[in-house]
Amino acid sequence: MDLKHIKGKNKGHVVLYALSTCGWCRKTKRLLNDLGVEYYYTDVDLLEENEKDEVMKIVKRHNSRGSFPTLVIDDNKCIVGYEEEEIKRELGK
Predict the structure, then answer these.
(1) Phi and psi of 9, rounded to 5°?
(2) What is the pTM of this model?
(3) DSSP string, 2-70
(4) Class of domain 4-91
């Protein structure tokens, strides 16, 4: 899987599963950047079909609806959608 790395403060292993065409996904990326958090992300809609299937399995393990954005922290905390206050609470410390 092609994960892009954004440098910043280490707040755990933060992975954002997003869509390139999703406004809420763009807002989530902007918020993470504003918080100065180190994170990884992938735009699932830009992946090859076989990669997309594998990534969707990962997304659905954390978010059964398979919706975007899906933000996974340390492989155990999941925030679905653009939940600004929850993201700030988890990563803005």
Answers:
(1) -75, 135
(2) 0.95
(3) --EEE--B--S-EEEEE-TT-HHHHHHHHHHHHHTB-EEEEEGGGS-HHHHHHHHHHHHHH-TT--S-E
(4) alpha beta
What are the domain boundaries of the chain? Answer: 4-91
Nearest to 24 by CA among 83, 82, 86: 82
Q: What is the pLDDT of residues 29-58, one digit of tens each?
A: 999 999 999 999 999 999 999 999 999 999
The residue type of 82 is Y
Task: Give yes or no for a contact between 9 and 36, defined as CB atoms under 8 angstroms apart.
Answer: yes
Which amino acid belongs to residue 63?
N
